[in-house]
Amino acid sequence: MQVSFLRLAGNSLIIYLNCQPGEKDSGASVWLEPTWHFRNAKEVITGSRQAQTEDTMEHEAISHKLGSMALKRIRCVTIESGSNDITIELDDGLSIKTFVSDPTDEESWNVKYHERKIKIIGNPMKITKHSY
Fold it and tell me: Domain spans of the chain?
């Protein structure tokens, strides 16, 4: 799958894979709740705390940085044992990763597979699968 669109929703991040916002019959979407960061092989580029800004220009600058993910293919997805943090590795050494900041959070991330109408929700305690 490849990143086709990105959207910051406050300091949450939605990554659309092989689909656009509103498309419900194909592709998938990944919703990352804070805390997360986006990095290349050398450094962290931006993260959810930086995206917490109320300044429109700063928010647009962060969205622009995240835009380097566009059209990149997913190479690997891993879920860390003990925290259920998710790491998504992309082309060109780019990756995005969640970090537990509150072990009682109900949702750290979710993945919706639109064609199958399945939603997988990860939090620090468990991973669950739901139909929608």
Answer: 3-131
